[in-house]
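Lab notebook, bench 4. The sequencing result for the construct came back, and we need a structural model before the next group meeting so we can plan mutations. Quick request posted to the team channel:

Model the 3D structure of this chain.
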Amino acid sequence: MNKILIIGAGRSSTALIDYLCKEAAVHNWFVTVADTNLELAKSKVKHHPNARAIWLDVTKNNDRKDHLARTDAVVSLLPAHLHLEVAHDCIKFQKPFVTSSYVSRELYRLGDEARDRELVYTGERGLDPGLEHIAAKKRLDEIRAMGGKVTNFRSYGGGLMAPEDLKDNPWKFKFTWNPRNLVLMGQGTAQYLEKGKKKHIPYHRLFQKHKMVNIENVGEFEAYANRDSLLHKEVFGLKDVPSIYRATLRYPGFCDGWNALIQIGLTDGSYPILDSEKMTFHGWMEAYLEDEPGGSVKERMANKLGTSPFSKIIKQLEWLGLFSKRRIKFNRATPALLLETVLLDKWTLKSKEKDLILMQHEFDYVLEGERKTLISTMELKGKNGTDTALAKVVGLPMAILLKKVMTGEIKEMGMDVPMQQEIYEPLLKEMEEYGVVFKDRHV
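Done. Here's the predicted structure in token form:
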């Protein structure tokens, strides 16, 4: 086993590619990076002697199968909806398969077949889920080993901009991951557990229900509930824990602005706007207005949202160019696609800008009759717009896991690689060499 195929050379691939190229020189492996953007793939390979870049469109069946058949292990960094065909081929050709994406029902069903063929076949091995899982599992195991009983688990995480690069951006945010995923974030109903009772927050109220969280030595952040905190009861062994809450972090002011986009209707991807290429963004905004009082579109939109034309929310919308007379260039685009193009123009991380990854786990527990709280925090800042913190925390867990598969250290089969101590301890220890350090304090 010495050939690795990495499919996808996007935002989160840099650290993974660098790591596996470095290990390839040590173990005499060869790494192939495939993408539909050949120049992008070449920029990630950087003329490494043990690697090459190729053009590959995974929707072309013959090309995809030809490359998969000639490799020994596959990492998929594709958008989630493109994983399935690659996963099917990995089963057919008996190749280990690793991805950071959530495990869909279709992928999960393939797990039994992978197990039967004695394949390492796993998803959710990046940041969240992935690093978040094993870091929390380690602390939970330590609390239980002391004899503690966990009563409450709260988990917060976010991909943000470094404070020094916020400048005049009223959203205090830029893309560090897939823009389409961000536009669709939160859609569905968020679920969590509070004092033994299930709580549900539908999408249209999600960003109105944010709360404030303090990250020590960093600051105050807004947190909105993740889609389904209850899915992790089994993963973390939290069956009997009465309160479980997982949330995403943003700088203060973001949630009100994003809630405005939802209330207007701009995150809807369910229908095309006819003749959208003949409209301006100003005209697009006016199309959402009915009989709101006021003069200009901006003033009427402020009335619709129940705010002032001079409010921070309206300044956020104006900064995005939503009231401009600039013509829309897309035909029959959905609102979500138009919003994505607007955000790509304003929220793309510049070459010298840095991102910031924050993660904080909070565990309430009882030990010998005394109530305690363990707070475990990780803060990681990127170096620039290419060498990002996000690329490290998404790519390195997959890369380290794959190295252990290639060297025979991990042989667990099926869709779920167990979060056992012998797996997470060396992985977390190696992550510390790259600055991914969780600092613990008891309250």
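The first helix runs from residue 14 to 27.
Will bring this to the meeting.
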